[in-house]
Amino acid sequence: MRMLKVKSRSIAIIAATLLPLACASAAQAQSYPSRDIHVVVGYVAGTGPDLYARYAAELIRQGSGGKTVVVDNKVGAMSNIAAGQVARAKPDGYTVFVTGGSTFTTNPFLFKEVPFKLSDFTPVTSLQRGGLVFITKPESGIKSLKELVAFLKQKDGKAKFGYVNPLAFGAAEYLKQRSGTKATPIAYKGAPDALMGLSGGEVDFMVSDPTPIMGSRDKYNVLAVTTEERVDAMPDVPAMKESGYDNFDLSGWWAVWMPAGAPDDVVAKVADWVEEGLKKPEAKEFFYRGGFQPWVGVRGEKLKQFAEKEYKKWGEIIKLTNIEPQ
């Protein structure tokens, strides 16, 4: 009987300790948000990446009943600066990070040092997915990936390609490695500059996310999309497998994150808001205009595991291509 009394007393003490914490957590979730939410993005305002972050911010605003959501553009080092700031932010649910997968999967290999690691973040939910595209100008006469490879072999190392983000750079280098060709990379600050470089003859081809060209497809030859199968947003563009390259699935993807330690109830609430918005027809219409599609329901631990798998895949690709970190 005495042992039962001791156990009962211990349980009562534990319950008395945990109950206020549970109540506080529930109260926090119910009152969230009680002030402005800041959505951080690591790219210039008005660019495709910025538009995706603002779309996610709008879904959060709508889900919260119209609370104020502020988009903060923390530009620099391919989103490393933004990621570093979010990693150090207070994990109270009021700092949200919307970024492409390259932040976690390629940046650690492309830079000698990054001011964060994946464990510094709480995975919230997925946002969108799609492939990169290989592009030439019509005057080049290059209308397929096979013709591009033949052109690169003919140029024997004198060709050039343009890119903006690390995924595009990695995709071009991987094609070079797989096809046994050479081409000099030319980095551009933004897609408009890169497209001008392509049109002006500074580079022979370009690898990019499809967003910058979706409104002017007739001005470019879109040779292939870096996925195993064709994508719904660009059904006329061949995938890598049918272009002669198996196991060349270098999809781009975006997701929503918070600093590590963010409250579970708040994380779940924001994930629900984003997912509910992505299921609406207008979300598909929005992302299709950019050549992407909504990516719904990969949240929490599943999103973290997906990011870890992508990190491993890109590490192997970058090792194959001998890319030197900056």
Question: What topology emerges from the helices and strands here?
Answer:
Blueprint: H1 2-31, E1 37-41, H2 48-63, E2 69-73, H3 80-87, E3 95-100, H4 102-105, H5 107-110, E4 121-130, E5 133-136, H6 145-155, E6 160-163, H7 166-179, E7 184-187, H8 191-199, E8 205-208, E9 221-225, E10 252-259, H9 264-278, H10 281-289, E11 293-294, H11 300-321
Helix pairs in contact: 2-9, 7-11
Under CATH at level 1, the class of the largest domain stands as Alpha Beta
Structural class: alpha/beta
Mean pLDDT: 91
Taking the sheet with the most strands, its summary is: 6 strands, mixed
Radius of gyration: 23 Å
Distance between the termini: 69 Å
The residue fraction in helices comes out at 40-55%
| Mass-distribution shape | globular
Q: Regions with pLDDT < 50 over 5+ consecutive residues?
A: 1-7
Widest sheet: strand order? Answer: 2-1-3-10-4-11
Number of strands: 11
User: How many domain regions?
Assistant: 2
CATH topology of the largest domain: D-Maltodextrin-Binding Protein, domain 2
The topology string of helices and strands comes to HEHEHEHHEEHEHEHEEEHHEH
Individual helix count: 11
Can you identify the CATH superfamily of the largest domain? Bordetella uptake gene, domain 1
